Amino acid sequence: MLTLEDIKKNPEVQELVIGAQKQLDALGYTEHSVRHVSIVSNRAGKILETLGYDEKRIELAKIAGYLHDIGNSVNRVDHAHSGAILAYNILKEMGMDIKDRTEIMSAIGNHDEQTGTAVSDISAALILADKSDVHRDRVVNKNMATFDIHDKVNYAVTKADLVIDNKQKKLTLDLTIDNHICPVLDYFEIFMDRTMMSKYAAKYLQIWFELVINDTRLL
């Protein structure tokens, strides 16, 4: 079975991750490079591991997390769909079983809130991991005077912890937001769709999604 480490060593994957960030830099988007995909990969695997899934499902979730944004190397628009097809073909060339690569393709193709939803355990874990990575480290623009609302909200988040409690069947996204940079309301203005997507993804895994901001439970 292919592992995450095999995927990371693939030169084609490496170039697609670099190319995706290069294009997003040109567009002024937040960071989607190795940092982001590594965090998403780790969290997706951790979610399924904590919930008691087997090693194979955990590894597939990690791989889906690492590959989920390579479609940005094509275009930001429909990046989930183009990325899913790119990933499928790469995994096919690497010899992955057809069922496994189809699972990963489906998860990647459904991770964007505009067109997707949780359709499997791997998909749900990917969504929850991806939407939880809100942090000032993702802000590429260093000039605060020119921040758009996405830059402002991400930069305001000084802590973002994802806590999975299998005993209570609960997953908590615990954020600390600097109110001097932006009010909490701004978070919901741009992340409401992502928050609701996370809620439904958690429901697919038969757990509850909880959002805590500045020690206040909001969902």
Structural class: alpha+beta
Overall spatial form: globular
CATH architecture: Orthogonal Bundle
Task: Give helix and strand order, one letter per element, not per position.
Answer: HHHHHHHHEEHEE
Helix segment tally:
9
What is the rounded distance between the termini?
39 Å
Name the CATH superfamily classification: Hypothetical protein af1432
Mean pLDDT comes to: 96
Radius of gyration over all CA atoms, rounded: 17 Å
| CATH class label | Mainly Alpha
Report the CATH topology name: Hypothetical protein af1432
Give the strand order, joined by hyphens, for the main sheet.
Answer: 1-2-3-4
Total tally of structural domains: 1
Largest sheet: 4 strands, mixed
Unreliable residue stretches: none
DSSP, total strands: 4
Written description of the protein model:
It contains nine helices and four strands; from the N terminus they run H-H-H-H-H-H-H-H-E-E-H-E-E. The chain has a single domain, classed as Hypothetical protein af1432, CATH 1.10.3210.10. Strand 2, helix 9 and strand 3 form a beta-alpha-beta unit. The chain is globular. 55% of the residues lie in helices and 11% in strands. The protein is α+β, with helices and mostly antiparallel strands. The longest helix is centred in the C-terminal third of the chain and has 21 residues.
Provide the descriptors you would attach to this structure in a database record.
219 residues; alpha+beta; Hypothetical protein af1432; four-stranded mixed beta sheet; 9 helices; 55% helix; globular
